[in-house]
User: Which sequence fits this backbone?
């Protein structure tokens, strides 16, 4: 074996690589050389990051992926990148690289590199719309021929809360810019049309409504692009839970409304049925009496032949004969009932609990 002296450090070595001992060659030929500083933008509102015109990224793992994907635009790499760790709070982006700088080197090794970067603070697109309270889209929620119920408002507000909770990971535009509550409905303003649509999709799983979408030109941006305001009108059916409806001449209690179907109770047989709203012509469904219009009473006794009810307002005792076994089971003593007076008979209506 030939023993030679390294011209750089003067040590005796078996091999010369590029005229130097392996250690000196490695020191002068790192596996990674950063050529350009990494420039990151950070949203001062939500903390999202953007790397040179990328999308706004709100997840550290995704930001690492993006940096790795573009690594060759900041650095020259001669090895295989094994690991990247970001710790932007501690101001470090670390890369671990495995490889060897020259074929003649005996084995691969690992180098740790710290990358230089600079963060400039700005405001991301979704926060900008929100912060400037830009009203790009309105979702107007109404019900046909009536006010929205408290239950419906609760469902709408809960859905808004779920949506707003997404702002941490998806951007501040998931928080509505303004929510206007009126007796006849709710107007919800969003800074993003996409988020307004996302909200409507979420709500459609919880309430039934028809959707009417219109877009109106409201101006032109400085760069000449047309600005539109999107209006999404949601129209809930005229009936609601607890109402008595007339469908093709028969009376039903609306027990529940879910997306695409209503659950009704036949007020003659007291049987429950699920009707798909797609097959039901809503024009044939008429509100006979709304929940609020029903007189209230309490069942005093039920002997299997008749139900005795005392009315809450006038303390009048009513006797209603039982025609179906289901009636006997529904109207147990102590239960609250609705009273529907028709010209020839009185119909007891089971209470629909809210929620
Ligand atoms: Zn040397
Ligand atoms: Zn932001």
Assistant:
């Amino acid at each position: 074996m030939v023993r030679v002296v390294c011209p750089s450090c003067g040590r005796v070595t078996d091999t010369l690589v590029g005229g130097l001992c392996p250690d000196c060659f490695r020191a002068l030929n790192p596996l990674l050389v950063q050529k350009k500083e990494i420039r990151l933008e950070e949203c001062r509102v939500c903390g999202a990051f953007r790397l040179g015109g990328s999308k706004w990224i709100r997840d550290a793992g995704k930001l690492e992926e993006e940096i790795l994907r573009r690594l060759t635009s900041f650095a020259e790499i001669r090895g295989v990148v094994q690991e990247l760790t970001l710790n932007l709070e501690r101001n470090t982006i670390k890369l671990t690289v495995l490889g060897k700088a020259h074929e003649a080197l005996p084995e691969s090794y690992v180098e740790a590199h710290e990358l230089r970067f600079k963060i400039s603070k700005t405001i991301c697109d979704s926060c900008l719309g929100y912060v400037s309270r830009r009203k790009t889209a309105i979702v107007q929620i109404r019900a046909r021929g009536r006010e929205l119920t408290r239950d419906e408002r609760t469902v709408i507000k809960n859905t808004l809360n779920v949506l707003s909770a997404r702002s941490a990971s998806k951007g501040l535009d998931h928080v509505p810019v303004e929510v206007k509550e009126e007796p006849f409905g709710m107007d919800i303003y969003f800074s993003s049309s996409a988020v307004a649509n996302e909200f409507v999709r979420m709500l459609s799983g919880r309430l039934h409504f028809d959707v009417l979408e219109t877009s109106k030109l409201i101006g032109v941006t400085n760069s000449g692009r047309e600005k539109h305001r999107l209006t999404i009108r949601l129209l809930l059916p005229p009936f609601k839970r607890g109402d008595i409806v007339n469908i093709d001449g028969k009376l039903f209690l609306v027990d529940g409304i879910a997306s695409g179907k209503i659950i009704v109770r036949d007020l003659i047989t007291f049987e429950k049925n699920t009707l798909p709203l797609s097959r039901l012509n809503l024009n044939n469904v008429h509100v006979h009496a709304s929940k609020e219009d029903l007189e209230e009473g309490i069942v005093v006794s039920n002997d299997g032949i008749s139900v005795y009810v005392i009315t809450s307002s006038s303390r009048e005792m009513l006797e209603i004969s039982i025609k179906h076994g289901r009636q006997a089971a529904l109207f147990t003593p102590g239960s609250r009932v609705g009273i529907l007076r028709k010209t020839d008979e009185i119909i007891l209506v089971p209470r629909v609990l809210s929620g």
In short: Residues 31-122 form one domain.
